[in-house]
Amino acid sequence: MQKNIYEISKEGRRGYYFDTYDLEDYSKSFDIPDKFRREEAPRLPEVSENYVVRHFTKLSNRNYGVDTGMYPLGSCTMKYNPKINEVVAAMPNFSHTHPSWREKHVQGNMKIINELQGMLSELTGMPGISLQPAAGSHGELTGLMIMKQYLIDQGDVHKKNIIIPDSAHGTNPASVAMAGFIAKEVKSNAEGTIDMDALSQLIDENTAGLMLTNPNTLGLFEKDILEITKRIHDVGGLVYCDGANMNANMGITRPLEMGFDIVHLNLHKTLSTPHGGGGPGSGPVGVVSSLKDYLPGPIVKASDEDFYTFEMPAKSIGHVKNYFGNFGVYLRAYVYFLTMGGEGLKLASQLAVLNANYMKACLKEAYKVPYKALCKHEFVLAGLKEPGDVSTLDVAKRLIDYKVHPPTIYFPLIVEQCLMIEPTESESLETLDDYINILLKIAKEAKEQPELLHNAPTTASVRRLDEVSVARNPVLSYRFNGEEQ
Amino acid sequence: MHPYLPHTQADIDHMLQKIGVESIEDLFTDIDAKALLKSPMRLPKAESEGRVIRKLTKLGESNIDTANWLSFVGGGIYEHLIPTIVPHLISRSEFYTAYTPYQPEISQGTLQAIFEYQTMICELTGLQVANASHYDGSTALAEAAFMACGATRRDTILIPDTLSPESKNVLRTYLKYKDLNLVEVPSKDGVVDSDILKDYIHDDVAAYLVATPNYYGNLEDLTGVSEQLHANKSLLVIMSNPMSLSLFKSPGEWGADIAVGDGQVFGNPMNFGGPTLGYMACTEKLMRKMPGRIVGETLDLDGKRGYVLTLQAREQHIRREKATSNITSNEALNVLAATIYLSTMGLAGIYEVARRSHINACYLRDHLKGIKGIKIMHNQQIFNEFVIQVKDSEEVMKSLELFQIIPGIIIDHEQNLLLITTTEVHEKEDLDTLVVAMKEVLA
Ligand SMILES: Cc1ncc(COP(=O)(O)O)c(C=O)c1O
């Protein structure tokens, strides 16, 4: 057990030193009136600087990142995070700029935003790009708001239904609800793609649109994509592309060519910006020309004289986030474009798909492969071929004992005992082989020594944790001297 | 091959053979030819690190040189001193190259840090439960509005006109598409009078969302406000600059049900406005209505203490369209920076930062007051910002640029109002420089 920061705190220690204050005398004439004065002081730890360093270094040792080893978390694109990205993002002339300074004082930032808008436009085919959303789900919400405003302007206020495949990520239906639409689920067929008959039955004049990830969350390219987008357009609806899986598509196909109207990208997936232990991300939204005026703003326009200005699109849905979005993340994605180049990005997607298909081919002897077709950058397995009383959770926990990060598990919901594996282009053949061999060995252990899996992990800093009682009686902050919440 | 791609041609050939195809192109035969790109993307060619660094250094030079300018700009994003250990520690790749702690056994570092952060946010806000963050203060505010409408089953949100334009804008967008109403309460002398507020509290009001300190830097007197709202079964949501909370009454002490704000001030650089972090805390009663991730403390099989994501039945991956929010990725690394910052500074540290930020503003306001051509707009208790009126705000901005000074934000071009901000980074000398320069340009 590691002590928490409060448990190493001792009255009188300090971690930061101030110079003497020139206005000490002046300050004596100031007092905060009682009605505004804080009554009970907040309890914060008192720790010396070197022990803060030690505390958080210890914590970092109980974590696992892409730099530690393979992290094939399906749907999350855990690729290498180039270090030059971090160096650039930390340059003070970027990180110390204030968003309310005048345009002429931040032309460097604005040029970067403008060029990144252009690069993402080329990557998706979409002529309009707004960088403002802060993550994938924020991009979804933004895209749905654009849809809604467009439909309102078309006089189609009755269009309230958004069709979503049953394989979709949970954020899709959640975003639909947040944007005031109604989610309608469409079944997947035995091949793992949208069931076209079921789709036909759902489409009617109340259809506002459809949300789709392509390749979908099973790692399969929706072969009927052109027909799907056409059918939605035929009833006056719009089609949204959840771009979480763009890492399979770069330089090969684009949302525009597939017939989508709106797309979001996750810069923290496809474009190599780090996941930060859960964020910050960035979820830029791209749209076809008829929707450009609806984008959230401000976006950056370039004038002839190489001067950049902020502009609100004419019929903008408004702002979805403070200022211009996560600029610190844009810098990293921009640098990634420069260091990879167009050809490098295409190669990355090709190798990501190669890696996934290779792993799938090697694992089919011991794991159930529910969809035989070629996969794209990720694939799903329906647990062990001979599971006995071993679950996918057990397999995942046993992987931890072998010092690698487990894949995404139990998602998509339509695959039983699902393991969703996305190796990314960053992993070498040797690393893939190691991971494959571990998974094959675990399959063998499941038959011969299942208790090894049931008890796993035994080599991590903690063993399996009791998630049930904490949800019932949550302890969500430190109990000082054992006090109740 | 590219330095980020470890494949050799022999590796590729071996893998293709195992898959049973001849070429990489064969892996894409499932894509309809009509959907394939016909020509390469028009993107630049790959460049070496050296060139990229040179290019970005140059782009940085197209911004003003931040080290040589004196800025009094705030209004939502603030420059504070950041202890060197903060960027140092968050650069540990076990932290920043990890993702959401889905596998708790190998994510105890992230999980425990979030738990410590939740504790600190509870302490600062005086409320019982905090989540693991939102994208920023304004999206946290918008989510609080949804939460209040859900909890009260009502559809109207009240805000004072003293809320920042950034927050108003975000709130307006979120509420509009969810068919919820937004009503603005007018202010007097830079704050809302609770007698005026009273007339706006009807039975459709889910919550009153108020910022204190507000956009003008003034503290809102919320005496009796929570009682007024609760008598009407409405909620009180308080947004704050959390740096002010060591000096001033906490949201909990004002009787708030939900507290939100932007935590950028805790150890995060300005970053041109993002990424920052939005914090949210609420009463225990509202705990299961809260959006976002929450970390809880529990035991492992051996009885050892550990941490997990909890109360997940609220979240999108389980509840889908019935979830309390669609949020999944949040601002975890900024949360880590805030946690390290607060651990380093302690209460004495943030109290000192808040005190100096406040006293600096009082001093500056005092010394600008006497200058001909400057009017101090409001007579209110401030934290670290205040509003002045000049004859021609554009002219003042332009003239001061010659001294490499940015005196603040023009928040109203017609009325020529300037919002001026100080923090502990300003030394007395800096404040005096602004006063002297103002005198000169207004003379
Ligand atoms: C398919 C899919 N859609 C949407 C999201 C949401 O993205 P974010 O976490 O950036 O909000 C994710 C990832 O979490 C995803 O995998």
What are the main properties of this structure?
heterodimer, A: 485 residues, alpha/beta, 3-stranded antiparallel sheet, 15 helices, 12 strands, 10% strand, B: 443 residues, Aspartate Aminotransferase, domain 1, Aspartate Aminotransferase, domain 2, 7-stranded mixed sheet, 4-stranded antiparallel sheet, globular, binds pyridoxal-5'-phosphate
Instruction: Give the tally of β-strands of chain A.
Output: 12
Specify the CATH class of the largest domain in chain B.
Answer: Alpha Beta
- Strand order of the main beta sheet of chain A, please? 1-7-6-5-4-2-3
Biggest beta sheet attributes of chain B = 7 strands, mixed
Order of helices and strands of chain A: HHHHHEHEHEHEHEHEEEEHEHEEHHH
What profile does the largest beta sheet of chain A have?
7 strands, mixed
Count structural domains of chain B: 2
Structure in words:
The complex is a heterodimer of chains A (485) and B (443). Chain A is α/β, with parallel strands linked by helices and 485 residues long. Chain A has helices at 24-27, 49-61, 83-89, 92-95, 107-124, 136-153, 171-178, 196-202, 225-234, 255-258, 327-363, 392-401, 429-448, 450-455, 467-472; strands at 128-130, 161-165, 182-186, 207-213, 238-243, 262-265, 285-287, 299-302, 308-311, 379-381, 408-409, 419-421. Chain A is built from 15 helices and twelve strands. The two termini of chain A are 22 Å apart. With 443 residues, chain B is an alpha/beta fold. Chain B folds into two domains: 70-82 and 346-442, Alpha-Beta Complex (Aspartate Aminotransferase, domain 1), CATH 3.90.1150; 84-341, Aspartate Aminotransferase, domain 2. Chain B has helices at residues 9-19, 49-61, 85-90, 93-96, 108-125, 137-152, 165-177, 194-198, 225-231, 251-254, 316-319, 332-369, 393-401, 428-442; strands at residues 70-71, 129-130, 156-160, 181-185, 205-211, 235-240, 258-262, 278-282, 295-299, 305-309, 375-376, 385-389, 405-406, 409-412, 417-421. Chains A and B meet through helix 2, helix 3, helix 4, helix 5 and helix 6 of A and helix 1, helix 2, helix 3, helix 4 and helix 5 of B. The structure holds pyridoxal-5'-phosphate. Pyridoxal-5'-phosphate is lined by residues 75, 135-137, 169, 171, 213, 217, 242, 244, 266, 281, 283 of chain A.
